């Protein structure tokens, strides 16, 4: 039975890069954000309920979700954000479980869940938590470089996420991603060897019981 490690971290920490390093080593990888995107893509199963709750203004003339408009709406209103989460989170949870069932024979797998600290219901899907950490200035610089957002806009996003101390408190393991991609690969290789060993001999290892 595959043991699942929840990989999390703040924006700009390098979660996706770390998850890809594990995937390159042959580790099954599930991406909660990609799952959410598929649920809201063309003909996604979340779209009818989103239209019912948010109206036609968040859709274009082709019936596609205007993610930019919806993002602005939920960013400005905690109640609207909670409304969207009431639709999306149960669907994401269910889809991740389905994906996990397709990887029954691996020693362990990675589930990339950016908001694991904030949305604790997802802990039931995993056995262990790996937090990707990075210095704040590096995180801000990475996000600015890839997104075109201003420093203030990135800081605003970070302020709406869990604190670094909260993520570290949840973690079984911490990977400090403060260097090059080569360094990140080396660190994930060491963790891969560690996980392969402990999950082969002690499949219940970890403080989470998913």
From TrEMBL:
CDD domains referenced in this protein's UniProt entry, alphabetically: DPCK
Keywords in alphabetical order: ATP-binding, Coenzyme A biosynthesis, Cytoplasm, Kinase, Nucleotide-binding, Transferase
Spans traversing the lipid bilayer: none
GO molecular function: ATP binding; dephospho-CoA kinase activity
Metabolic or biological pathway: Cofactor biosynthesis; coenzyme A biosynthesis; CoA from (R)-pantothenate: step 5/5
Domain of life: Bacteria
Keyword NAD: no
Presence of keyword Kinase: yes
GO biological process: coenzyme A biosynthetic process
Binding-site positions, ATP: 12-17
Localization, UniProt: Cytoplasm
GO (cellular component) term, any one: cytoplasm
Chief location category: cytoplasm
Pfam annotation, one family: CoaE
Catalytic class of the enzyme: transferase
Catalytic activity: 3'-dephospho-CoA + ATP = ADP + CoA + H(+)
EC numbers: 2.7.1.24
Function: Catalyzes the phosphorylation of the 3'-hydroxyl group of dephosphocoenzyme A to form coenzyme A.
Family: Belongs to the CoaE family.
UniProt protein name: Dephospho-CoA kinase
Species of the source: Neisseria meningitidis serogroup B (strain ATCC 13091 / M2091)
Lineage: Bacteria, Pseudomonadati, Pseudomonadota, Betaproteobacteria, Neisseriales
Gene name as annotated: coaE
């Amino acid at each position: 039975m595959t043991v699942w490690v929840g990989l999390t971290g703040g924006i700009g920490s390098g979660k996706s890069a770390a998850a890809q390093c594990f995937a390159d080593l042959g580790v099954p990888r599930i991406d909660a954000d990609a799952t959410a995107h598929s649920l809201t893509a063309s003909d996604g199963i979340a779209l009818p309920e989103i239209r019912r709750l948010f109206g036609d203004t968040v859709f274009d003339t082709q019936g596609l979700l205007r993610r930019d408009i919806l993002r602005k709406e939920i960013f400005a209103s905690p109640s609207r954000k909670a409304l969207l989460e009431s639709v999306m989170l149960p669907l994401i949870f269910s889809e991740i479980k389905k994906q996990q069932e397709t990887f029954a024979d691996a020693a362990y797998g990675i589930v990339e869940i950016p908001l694991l600290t904030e949305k604790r219901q997802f802990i039931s899907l995993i056995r262990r938590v790996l937090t990707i950490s990075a210095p704040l200035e590096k995180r801000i610089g990475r996000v600015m470089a890839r997104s075109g957002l201003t420093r203030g806009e990135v800081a605003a996003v970070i302020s709406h996420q869990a604190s670094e101390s909260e993520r570290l408190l949840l973690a079984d393991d911490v990977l400090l991603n403060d260097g090059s991609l080569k360094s990140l690969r080396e660190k994930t290789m060491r963790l891969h060897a560690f996980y392969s060993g402990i999950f082969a001999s002690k499949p219940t290892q970890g403080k989470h019981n998913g």
